[in-house]
Design goal:
With about 325 residues, the protein is mostly beta strands. The protein has one domain (about 10-260): Jelly Rolls (Sandwich), CATH 2.60.120. The protein is about 5% helix and about 50% strand. The strands form five sheets. Strands 2, 14, 15, 18, 19, 20, 21, 22 and 23 form a nine-stranded antiparallel beta sheet that branches. Strands 3-4-5-12-7-10-13 form a seven-stranded antiparallel beta sheet, with no helix packed on it. A hairpin with a 2-residue loop joins strand 16 and strand 17 (about 180). This is Redox-sensitive bicupin YhaK (Pirin superfamily).
Length: about 325
C-alpha cells in the first residue's frame, strides 16, 4: 500500500535512545488519512511521539467499510525500497500486482508479504465482484542494512500457524513465533506479529519476550490490554520488559499484536521509501519518475502514481526524537 499524501513529511526513526527498558502504556490516537478513491485509513505509525515498534515502521487500519456500491481499495502502481509490506485482512479481498510479475488476490487471515529490497513497484485494488465489506491493516517492516538491497519478492501464505488457548483466545501467527508456532513468512530481524481473536469475557496472559517492544492494535470490539481499554482503530504502545501480557475481552474482540527487538539503525522514511540518507531517498524518487530501476506493473488499467515533490529541508537520519 502507498502513502498517498500529497505532501508527505519526512520521518526520522530507528535508534534505541528512547526505548524504555520497562513496560509503558502509551495510547496512540490515529490520524485519518485518505487513501485512493474511496478509502480512509487510520494511521497509527509513524506518529508524533512514536516512530517504530521493533522493525514495524508503518501501521494503517481501515474499515470496516461498506463497499457494496463503491470501488473499494484503488491504489495505483507506486514504488518501494528498503522495506517489507504486510497485507492483513479481516474482511474483503485485495488484488496485488507487482513489477516482479506477481498477481495474487489476498483474502482474510492470509499473509500477503512483499519484500521491496532494492526496488519494487506494486498496485493494490479491490477486485471486480468484491465483497460488501473491506476491513484490514497495512503494515510496513523496515529492512536492516544487511538485507535492504536484497532482490524484490512476493510471498502469499494461505495457511498460517494458529495457537489456541482454552480460555477463549485463538492466535494466528503473522510473522515470527508464538508458543513454538512459527510463521512461514520471511523475516530479516527478530520480529513478532499475531492476530488475536478473543471471545466475550476471555481473560488471557499471553507469553511475550522481555527484550521485545510491543504494541496492540484493536481491530474490532474492545480489548483491555494490560488494564487499558483499547477501542477499535487505536493502538497501545507497551514498551519492553514484560514476560506476559494480560488481555481481557469486553465482548468478542480482535486485535493485532506487533513486536520485535528495538531497531538499532537510524532511518529516513519519506513517501514510500525507507533509506539511510536524504541522497538515497532523492535518488529513489528520481529513478521512479524517470522509469528506472522499479520495473513495470503490468495489467493495471491506469497511470502510476507520480512522486510528490521533495521537502525543501534536507532529509537526515536523527533517530527517534520526540
Amino acid at each position: 500500500m502507498s502513502d498517498l499524501q500529497l505532501r508527505p513529511a519526512p520521518v526520522v526513526c530507528g535508534g534505541r535512545e528512547d526505548v524504555a527498558g520497562g513496560p509503558v502504556r502509551e495510547l496512540l490516537a490515529p490520524r485519518r488519512v485518505p487513501l485512493g478513491e474511496s478509502t480512509v485509513v487510520r494511521r497509527l505509525l509513524p506518529s508524533l511521539g512514536r516512530r517504530m515498534v521493533g522493525a514495524w515502521c508503518f501501521v494503517d487500519h481501515y474499515g470496516p467499510d461498506d463497499v457494496t456500491d463503491a470501488p473499494g481499495m484503488q491504489v495505483p502502481p507506486h514504488p518501494h525500497i528498503g522495506l517489507q509490506t504486510v497485507s492483513w485482512l479481516h474482511a474483503g479481498e485485495v488484488l496485488h500486482r507487482d513489477s516482479v510479475g506477481s498477481l495474487q488476490t489476498v483474502r482474510p487471515k492470509e499473509l500477503g508479504l512483499m519484500t521491496a529490497g532494492r526496488a519494487i513497484a506494486h498496485a493494490e485494488v479491490s477486485p471486480r465482484g468484491h465483497g460488501p465489506i473491506l476491513h484490514g491493516a497495512q503494515l510496513w517492516v523496515a529492512l536492516p542494512d544487511a538485507h535492504r538491497h536484497t532482490d524484490p519478492a512476493f510471498e502469499h501464505h494461505t495457511v498460517l500457524p494458529r495457537v489456541t488457548a482454552g480460555n477463549g483466545m485463538e492466535a494466528t501467527v503473522i510473522l515470527g513465533e508464538l508458543d513454538g508456532a512459527a510463521s512461514p513468512g520471511t523475516a530479516y530481524t527478530p520480529i513478532f506479529g499475531a492476530d488475536l481473536a478473543l471471545a466475550d469475557g476471555a481473560e488471557v496472559r499471553l507469553p511475550v519476550e522481555p527484550d521485545f517492544e510491543y504494541a496492540a492494535l484493536t481491530m474490532s470490539g474492545v480489548t483491555e490490554v494490560d488494564g487499558v481499554r483499547v477501542e477499535p482503530g487505536s493502538m497501545l504502545y507497551l514498551g519492553c520488559g514484560r514476560r506476559e501480557l494480560p488481555l481481557r475481552a469486553d465482548g468478542d474482540s480482535g486485535l493485532v499484536l506487533l513486536g520485535g527487538e528495538p531497531f538499532e539503525e537510524k532511518l529516513v522514511m519519506w513517501w514510500n521509501f525507507v533509506g539511510r540518507s536524504g541522497e538515497e531517498i532523492a535518488q529513489a524518487r528520481e529513478d521512479w519518475m524517470t522509469g528506472d530501476r522499479f520495473g513495470t506493473v503490468h495489467g493495471y488499467d491506469g497511470d502510476p502514481l507520480p512522486a510528490p515533490a521533495l521537502p525543501a529541508t534536507p532529509l537526515k537520519p536523527r533517530g527517534r526524537t520526540r
